[in-house]
Design a protein that fits this description.
50 strands, about 15% helix, single chain, elongated, mainly beta
Length: about 625
């Protein structure tokens, strides 16, 4: 019995051992399976994360390219594998006609569409691993919009300006007085010239013999209205003196110095009587002297020093008279309203003095009273000019002096022709190569020019940069525009006989430009104290634009620009456009109608403008894998 039990226990012990061994084996298998599963799952997770990150990086590459387009830069590739996000990009371009553009560092020509391929990488594993990259593509439409500068003068010259003999500067449209003229020197208008705008001159203004301005004039020096029939439809402002003489002025006269007249005009201000000035007259630091034989003023007279009225009692009479520090001499004329004088009052006929309206600060008489209020030169209701000190409540008291300022000095605009300036400012313009053969004498270049322009569709803007080392010659030049055309001539242009400009499908603009960086042009700072940063051209045999006669038709517009000289030699011609020149010479009978033109690449010293802008939009995105 004992033997049987012992034997049974031995058998049970062996079975248990087998069971334990089996269980251990099973556990090891389970652990191995679980470990394998965990490892596999971990690998899948890493791969998934790398895929997601690389795809996001690829999308970032598309966004980078779009940002470059919108700042008017068109790269052919970009490698940012060491950045975060990490990507590399390749880009190809076509123009508006669908032709592929050459791509080195940046695209050549004017791109209209871009195809972008961006490869994104993940930072989780090696960026060279195939599983760690993702490619996406995109197509972007590109719209180039050149945002040039609107120049607000019909004629701008750095030095003095002379207009003579039936010259007319017209506004951009009937009744629009924007035919403005500006010079950093003096301005002279002689014989039957009309300007439909404001005249600004840093120097003197001299207007003679039936010349007229349909707006105001503002001089940094003296104003001399020499002869009769000079008409100013606005105001007259002078830093120096103003000689009205026999002119007719519909507005006010404000001068720092003396204001004088010689005789009455033949114009009336609605009163039926001859009147020299329909507004009022100010002499802020001088005297007012009206001629003894009558120069009627419809408004009032305000002077720091003395005032002399004419001998004849003409109507209209001055509305009021104020002298801050001087006397009043009434040779025969009377005053309608208040008379406030610092010193004495004299009159040929004391009955002309109205006691109730007349006072003096220092002089006593039975014919006037003592002034009890402060004498003040009032501010005109409106003004083109500015005054010093600024924001003054009036134009002067006995202890407070106010002066007319010079017109703000304007720096001569600049247009540069360097590769970087052209790339930045002339986006959207075709820039074909121009052969050197166009520079030879004769007119053979005209057929070459027309051949170049014929290769472009209507409305295409074309910039031609001449490779010449001489002034571009020509005779009886005829240019038909199918789009805006700019010709950059670093050595100038000299065309004889007629220059005909017409448009088909326009109107279009012809811009003839001798750039600011042309040979022979030097820029200096004319007034570093008062106008720091402004520059003025100095030419030494520099590029001139010289023409005999312009005939401009079909509403075409012409822009002439050179830091040196513009010369138009033959009389009786007209053109729509603008002229900006260092110096200029114009013939009799010239009519220039100001055109509203946007000029690419214009920079005014001290202020940059005229760069191009770009609008780019993604039209499609797609997954390459």
């Amino acid at each position: 019995m004992l033997t049987i039990v012992t034997r049974l226990r031995r058998e049970q012990s062996g079975a248990a051992l087998v069971t334990v061994v089996a269980l251990m084996a099973i556990s090891m298998v389970v652990v191995a399976v679980i470990g394998t599963s965990i490892f596999a799952a971990s690998s899948v997770t890493v791969a998934s994360r790398a895929s997601v990150q690389s795809k996001a990086s690829a999308e970032a590459g598309i966004d980078w390219a779009l940002g470059e387009f919108n700042r008017s830069y068109f790269p052919c590739s970009g490698d940012f594998r060491t950045s975060d996000p990490s990507f590399s990009v390749t880009i190809s371009y076509v123009n508006a006609a669908g032709n592929a553009l050459t791509c080195g560092t940046t695209a050549s020509g004017s791109p209209a569409k871009a195809t972008i391929v961006s490869t994104g990488f993940s930072s989780i594993t090696s960026k060279t691993a195939a599983a760690n990259s993702h490619q996406v593509g995109a197509v972007a439409n590109i719209v180039l919009a050149t945002s040039g500068t609107l120049l607000d003068k019909a004629i701008f010259t750095e030095s003095g300006l002379l207009l003579t003999n039936d010259t007319q500067v017209a506004g951009s449209a009937p009744g629009v007085l924007d035919g403005n003229v500006y010079t950093n020197g003096s301005f002279t208008c002689a014989t039957q010239t009309r300007i439909d705008g404001t005249i600004f001159a840093r120097g003197n203004i001299t207007i003679d013999n039936t010349c007229q301005s349909l707006s105001s004039i503002w001089s940094g020096g003296n104003v001399d209205l020499v002869q009769s029939d000079v008409r100013i439809a606005g105001d007259v402002y002078a830093v120096g003196w103003a000689a009205i003489n026999k002119a007719r002025i519909l507005g006010n006269v404000v001068a720092n110095g003396d204001v004088t007249t010689t005789n009455k005009s033949n114009y009336n201000c609605g009163s039926g009587n001859s009147t020299n000035v329909c507004g009022s007259v100010w002499s802020l630091n001088g005297s007012i002297n009206l001629a003894s034989n009558g120069s009627p003023i419809a408004g009032s007279l305000y002077a720091r020093n003395s005032v002399t009225l004419p001998n004849n009692d003409e109507t209209p009479r001055p509305a009021a008279v104020t002298s801050l520090n001087g006397n009043l001499t009434m040779l025969g004329s009377r005053v309608t309203g208040a008379v406030s004088i610092y010193g004495s009052i004299s009159s040929k006929n004391d009955s002309n003095i109205v006691k109730a309206n007349t006072c003096s600060v220092t002089s006593t008489s039975n014919y006037w009273t003592k002034c009890t209020n402060e004498l003040v030169l009032p501010m005109p209701p409106t003004s083109v000019a500015t005054f010093s000190p600024a924001n003054s409540a009036n134009l002067g008291t006995r202890t407070h002096t106010v002066s007319v300022d010079k017109p703000p000095r304007q720096g001569f605009p600049q247009i540069f022709s360097s590769a970087s300036a052209i790339a930045s400012n002339w986006n959207g313009w075709a820039k074909p190569a121009v052969p050197t053969s166009v520079c030879s004498s004769g007119n053979t270049w005209q057929s070459q020019l027309n051949s170049i322009l014929a290769g472009y569709s209507s409305g295409t803007k074309v910039l031609l940069q001449l490779p010449c080392t001489n002034a571009l010659p020509g005779s009886n030049v005829s240019i038909n525009l199918k789009g805006d055309v700019a010709i950059m001539a670093p050595y100038g242009i000299d065309w004889s006989n007629e220059t005909r400009v017409s448009s088909t499908g326009g109107p279009w603009a012809l811009m003839l430009v001798s750039p600011s960086d042309s040979p022979g042009v030097r820029w200096v700072e004319p007034d570093p104290t008062n106008s720091p940063g402004q520059l003025s051209p100095n030419c030494s045999g520099g590029p001139n634009l010289r023409f005999d006669k312009f005939i401009v038709s079909n509403s075409s517009r012409v822009f002439l620009y050179t830091p040196c000289e513009v010369s138009i030699r033959n009389k009786d011609q007209s053109m729509d456009g603008q002229i900006y020149a260092g110096t200029s010479s114009y013939p009799a009978g010239l009519l220039i109608k100001r055109a509203i033109m946007t000029i690419p690449g214009i920079q005014v010293p001290g202020q940059s403008s005229g760069s191009s802008s770009t609008s780019a939009t993604i039209t499609s995105r797609y997954d390459i894998g």
